[in-house]
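[job 0412] stage=complex_fold ligand=zinc ion status=START
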Amino acid sequence: MNFLLLLSTLFLAKPTDSLKTPFEKSGGKQSATYQECIAYYKQLSSFSSEVKVLQYGTTSIGKPLNLIVVSKEGISKSSEVNRENKAVLLINNAIHPGEPDGVDACMMLARDLVTKQEMKTLLDHVVLLIIPVYNISGALNRSCCTRANQDGPEEYGFRGTIQNLDLNRDFIKNDAAETFSFENIFTEWKPDWFVDTHVSDGADYQYTMTYIATQHNKLQPALADYQQKVLVPFMNAEMIKKNFEMVTYVNTINETPDSGIVEFLESPKFSTGYASLFNCIGFVTETHMLKPFAQRVNSTYAFLNCWMQKANDDYKTIRQLHVKADDSVAQQQLFSMNYKPDFTSVTTIPFKGYEAEHKPSDVTGAPRLFYNRDKPFTKQIPFFNSFIPTVEIQKPIAYIIPQYSKKLISIFQNNGVLMQELSKDTVIKVEVYYITDYKSTDHPYESHYMHHSVSVKKDTQMIRLYAGEVMVKVNQPANKFIVETLEPQSSDGFFAWNYFDGVLAQKEYFSDYVWEDKAFQLLQSDAQLKNLFEQEKKNNPDFIKTPAMQLDFIYKHSQYFENACNRYPVVRVVNF
Ligand SMILES: [Zn+2]
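[job 0412] stage=complex_fold status=DONE, emitting structure tokens
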């Protein structure tokens, strides 16, 4: 080809031709590799100043976490966003790299936003942030087959990280470097809305796209109202127009959807559960694994497109709601947590499924379930989307975190929690919790023998605190994050994730033969103790039969017993 011809070819080429993604080039069969994905965004950023490729912190294999910023102004710093005039939206892809639909959808979306005239207007009042590939080590661990039930792409990454962690359980415990980097992005850019892109498992049905909207009972009332009455109905209506009618995530009560759907509760360990602690409304997109890859990517693209359109139209409302919610959380007195479905409250929704039938298994001979695609149906099915808290906490004025909890303190710093160190040793009256009962998982769950079903007893004590202990006042927009992570009964708090297991062991004991005489003296001299001892005898038949229990009871109710055993080390300041 001569030089002139080359020049004219380049001149005539439309940007979109040279900016085709691996997904498009393969006819919808392939998902971009991690390297292809990052190279593509770099190409896009050299093509358009509206796209920036940034790096935030590190990941578990030392590679930086990338953040793509798409904005009309070519913004590359959060401080450059005019929040009066712009909503900030964050999309996270490949937290589970076996579910890569969002990776490929976002590459096309970013390109179209800067090359297609009709799409450009979506950036008038939106700054779009994209984490192109979140679980990089998982994305690099590619194969054909780890998603046994999924229809494509030809190759994809693996769910776990190199530590074999599920990043979508790590948002409080912060075992992975990726989580710390994500929370750094989140704190700096303070997104108003968030989407985490996935592919579902489970039942068969007609829909390509299902979604989990932030469970509304957890949100500030005004945010919940907007989400329930405006945003979710808009998304459903718009997606019908784009031929991707949706339904809520198919979390069935029994084996099949006919039994009803319970809304999925994303507690704070999940990405959208974490985001909701900061008044950021989230969606999890869950495309259906039995639909072809191309159809799933296109439905994810359609969802993100509608979602941006709504944000661009409603940016003023979105910003007002976010600011108001932050203010009201800073003032809030009572905090609810550990939600469970309210099965007394039910509505019905239309559901487009396939008849579930049973037939003998060719493998085992036992009856097996199958969905008969020749028998599609639309039925009203029960939907449980009302949740109630099982723990309610009156906030203290402040918590004091022991300075030895370095990791916890750094997580708080990374999440923008305001803290101050005590300048001198002091003795103050505080509320403390004793852990009176708890259960733990039998096997490691995400690298932890996680605690649950925690019971506590509150006490007021004079406690010695040393210079350097860290005070966290509960008067901040981060209040929900503070209370839900520090209260020991929280199902996803630091206690549940084994941050304070040290307090759960007794350090000193007694020898029975020596203690016998002291115990007897104590019963003689302490009428209150004697009374408690007699009560226990009356109420507990085992107690009477077990001398060791009786001696232990007197020990634990005496001044000889250590008061730090089972005492939760984060204390509550309730008056100064
Ligand atoms: Zn997933």
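Residues 1-13 have pLDDT under 50 and may be disordered.
[job 0412] exit 0
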